[in-house]
Amino acid sequence: MCGRMAITLPHDAMAQLFLAQPANDLPEVPNYNVCPTQRIAVCTSEEGRRLYRPMRWGLIPPWYKAPNDGPLLINARSETVAEKPAFRTAIRERRCLVPASGFYEWDRSDPKKPLPWYVTRADRAPMVFAALWQDWGHGEERVSTCAILTCPANAQMSQVHDRLPVILEPEDWALWLGEEGKGAARLMEPVPDGELTMVRVGTEINSSKAKGDGLIVPVPLNPA
Predict the structure, then answer these.
(1) What pLDDT does 148 receive?
(2) Which residue numbers are catalytic?
(3) What is the H or E stretch that residue 197 is in?
(4) Mean pLDDT of the chain, nearest integer
(5) How many CA atoms, within 13 angstroms, populate the side-chain half-sphere of residue 129?
(6) Are 151 and 188 in contact (CB under 8 A)?
(7) What pLDDT score was predicted for residue 23?
(8) Contact, 177 vs 130, CB < 8 A?
(9) Which segments within 2-158 are labelled E, that is strand?
(10) Measured distance CA(8)–CA(32) in Å, rounded
(11) Residue with more model confidence, 44 or 141
(12) What residue ranges in 101-193 does DSSP mark as E strands?
């Protein structure tokens, strides 16, 4: 799954990269510990133009009477996304891109001592996740929400976890956004081995309240 990430990318640069119009109320960056339910910036394609705008990380289905009315839906499994009631319309009609610097995953082979890893692209380019979105509103509360697609892990990632976010290349962004017709389902595959870099980081990231660039600093695998 993808349950925590770091976003340090300047919004202006990302809007330019996506050729998108940026909103005025984007969340503050850098943020080295982005947690579920926080606001993140995403790229959507609507009415012939791309927008770079904030959304809540954690999709809220239309039938929820409150944001916490059911399970927290931060991820959607690629294998079942077209069947699940919470996602099946959005995966056809409302796909988006979520840029990040990297994400965290935990090796839980010892349940009493989960060990965090920080994962980035090996080429140091921004990591762009495939995602879907849903507007939700009840009473006076209105919010745009999203969930990140996951797929089975590649061999490299499977050493730590059995799932991996769906990571898209620039040449695939238009297809995922629905700008190039049908066929986006073929993009929901793991990136090839070797395209990611994984480093062990300190257990400070185990806390959702931790802050600062020290969270992504590598630590020795076998400290003396």
Answers:
(1) 98
(2) 2, 105
(3) strand 196-200
(4) 95
(5) 34
(6) yes
(7) 97
(8) no
(9) 5-7, 21-22, 31-34, 39-46, 49-57, 75-77, 95-100, 102-107, 115-121, 127-138, 141-152
(10) 7
(11) 44
(12) 102-107, 115-121, 127-138, 141-152, 163-165
CA-to-CA distance for 62 and 184, rounded, in angstroms?
A: 24
Give residues with Cβ within 8 angstroms of 182, minimum separation 6: none
pLDDT beyond 60 at 67:
yes
Amino acid identity for residue 35 in this structure:
C
Identify the three-state secondary structure at position 157: helix
**138 and 61 in contact (C-beta within 8 Å)?**
no
43: left (phi over 0), alpha (psi -120 to 50) or beta: beta
State residue 110's pLDDT score.
87
Considering only CA atoms, which of 43, 56, 17 is closest in space to residue 141? 56
Q: In this structure, what token pair is assigned to residue 95?
A: 């796909």
- pLDDT bin (cut points 50, 70, 90) of residue 223 is low
- Please give the model's pTM, rounded to 2 decimal places: 0.96
Each residue's pLDDT tens digit, 101-130? 999 999 998 888 899 999 999 999 999 999
Closest of 197, 127, 102 to residue 157, by C-alpha: 197
Q: Are 215 and 32 in contact (CB under 8 A)?
A: yes
